[in-house]
Design a protein that fits this description.
- The protein is 31% helix and 23% strand.
- It has a five-stranded mixed sheet, with helices on one face.
- α1 packs across α2.
- The model has no long low-confidence stretch (mean pLDDT 90).
Length: 233
């Protein structure tokens, strides 16, 4: 969906217009030789290298990310840990198009149905098809991007649980820790914990925990089993 209504979209469009020759070059390379790793696309004469904390000195990764967001290229696999890129038209199935307003309406409806409950205009709303059957009484740790807490305002209204990921917060200003995970028990978020995995030794350690941690050990055992790690107590 090639949006144009957000400031980010306008910035992306302006950047692509400014670097139109770079865009054409990358698309030709993918058409001719794809799928490719970003490093297999040589620098373009119009782009000079500049150090950047996100995409390094080269701007090929930046361009591919923007074209991916615009639906022109796609991630079609991996080689090791590196993404393979190709023209989206080679991989995405043909489909009908629709006006942005209709696409947004359908997207919102599907999102609300999937979540069951959403927060809007300072009120919680329940979808008529929401499933209210009991959930298993199981403790688990949620990722910061789990759909239960992805909408931070919704999570705060549902469970009186204020959650913010603090990886970009300076150490001195962090309320909890670098990568703290919410603790879910049944249908309640009861606390938070900060486990960390040492990939060299395979040890899973707990740096800190807050709130109701009565069943945290069960959640950590499940995490360790999934990671193939040993808990360092």
């Amino acid at each position: 969906m090639r949006r144009r209504d957000r400031p980010l979209d306008r910035h992306r469009i302006a950047w692509l217009k400014e670097h139109a020759s770079f865009r054409r070059y990358a698309l030709r390379e993918l058409e001719r030789r794809g799928p490719l790793l970003s490093r297999e696309i040589e620098d373009h004469t119009s782009m000079r290298r500049e150090a950047h904390r996100w995409w390094g000195e080269r701007k090929v990764g930046l361009l591919l990310g923007i074209l991916n967001a615009r639906g022109e290229v796609a991630v079609v696999g991996r080689r090791g840990k590196q993404r393979l890129w190709d023209l989206a038209e080679r991989w995405y199935p043909a489909t009908e198009t629709m006006p942005l307003r209709e696409a947004r309406r359908l997207w919102i409806e599907k999102r609300r149905r999937a979540r069951g409950v959403w927060f809007e205009r300072n009120k919680l709303h329940v979808h008529p098809d929401a499933d209210d059957r009991p959930v298993p009484d199981r403790p688990t740790l949620l990722t910061p991007f789990d759909q239960l807490i992805h909408d931070r305002d919704r999570a705060e209204k549902l469970w009186d649980f204020r959650y913010r990921i603090e990886i970009y917060v300076p150490v001195a200003k962090r309320e909890f820790g670098y990568y703290v995970l919410p603790i879910l028990v049944g249908d309640r978020i009861v606390g938070r914990a900060e486990p960390v995995l040492d990939r060299k030794t395979g040890a899973l350690r707990l740096l800190g925990a807050w709130g109701d941690t009565a069943r945290l050990d069960e959640a950590l055992d499940d995490m360790a089993a999934w990671l193939g790690a040993e808990i360092q107590r």
